[in-house]
Input
Amino acid sequence: MVKTDSGLFESEWAILQAVWEIEPCAAPTVQEALQKKKNWSYSTVKTIMDRMVKKGLLKKEKVCNLYFYRSSISEIQAQRGEVMRTLKRAFNGTLTPMMQFLLEHEDIPEDELSDLEQAIKEKKRGNKGNKKE
Output
């Protein structure tokens, strides 16, 4: 099982995003995909990827003389881990104070507010049928 409670470093996010797009992939392919954004050397990418294998974020498979990497977690799992980590650290694990903070202290565009309202309405409708009596 992958433990994402410790959070992901920015470098790990960048590599995961590249791997999710092109997996299975070799380290040189990931380095090339990140060249414009990060300008990392091959050895930097390979080192980070090998550490990610040890952390359980990537899987590594040898085919002939080449190693191919695949993600061990989905994008949703990674996002959930990061959101839950922030929620626990900054808001004692409670969603309402976090949402109130964002609404009070961030300039949220009207279209995003409408999307949030719609998502909440849909969630409420979906939960009505799931209530235990």
